[in-house]
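Sequence in, structure out. First:
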Amino acid sequence: MHKFAVELTTAKEVESFSEIVKTIPEDVRLIGKDENGAEWNMSAKSLYCSLVVSAKFQREREHTAHDVNWDTLWCVCERDIYELIRDYVRISPRTEVK
């Protein structure tokens, strides 16, 4: 398993990153934490839609954590996809998880 710390700071970057990972046949996951430290895990292939929907509907929820702690954002895949996502990787070198 390969794990990369990623940084996605604009909607354009999120959209571009999502389009890249959609071309990868293997499962690509994003893992991170919200503002309260609760861990979350989701498909990186649907990140853009998920963030848009989350931002829209979370405004209606008063007492739940919903902000992504962007310093905890990691991309995980069985395949080494560094060359495809290197523009978004914020820490080098790559991290391999066993």
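Second:
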Amino acid sequence: MYLAKDAGMGFSYVLIGHREGYATLYGHLSSISVKTGDDIEAGQVIGKSGGAKGTPGAGVVTTGAHLHFELIHNGTHVDPQSLLSHE
């Protein structure tokens, strides 16, 4: 894993590196269950989503509780639907 950042009342997130230049970012976490440098396995709990405005992990501009998800390939943001199954 690349980075786990607990920002208290700010934007808390986990950034995970994958093979072939991919990375995923999971943000607005109310708690984080891993730490920077941990090996992460498929299905492992990395944290709890939350992120309602004014709560830990959310940041001040959050519009409501949700999970922020990003897919990155070789430093460029990619539409995650391009890799997710449509079945």
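Remark: The chain has one domain: 3-80.
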